[in-house]
Amino acid sequence: MGLESYRYACNVKWLGLRGDDLQLIPQSAFQELKPRDLQIAKSLLSSKFLQDTHRAELTRMVETGTRAEIEALYCHGFDFLGKFIARKIVQGDYI
């Protein structure tokens, strides 16, 4: 099935935190990449089907060795996360 994997690929949208959003969260919210995270990221980076925008985001994660969860936006209040997601969807600000 590996040779036919392109047939099963779907159009993925990245709605969560991206490199441009990282200034919105405190430095303490960043988490070190776990070995499994790094393994998955490197595997995805080796795929020829990965879109350039996704590749850039993953490369940044691997280079910094950190990740951030979207829940870190709760530091701005409980309604901020919902507004953040709604704004991303309405503005089409996802990749």
Automatic annotation (TrEMBL):
Gene Ontology biological process terms, A to Z: meiotic DNA double-strand break formation; meiotic DNA double-strand break processing; reciprocal meiotic recombination
Any single Pfam family the record assigns to this protein: TOP6A-Spo11_Toprim
Domain of life according to the entry: Eukaryota
GO molecular function, one term: DNA binding
CC terms in the record's Gene Ontology section: nuclear chromosome
Residues in Topoisomerase 6 subunit A/Spo11 TOPRIM domain copies: 9-89
PANTHER family reported for this sequence: MEIOTIC RECOMBINATION PROTEIN SPO11
Name of the protein in its database record: Topoisomerase 6 subunit A/Spo11 TOPRIM domain-containing protein
Organism lineage: Eukaryota, Viridiplantae, Streptophyta, Embryophyta, Tracheophyta
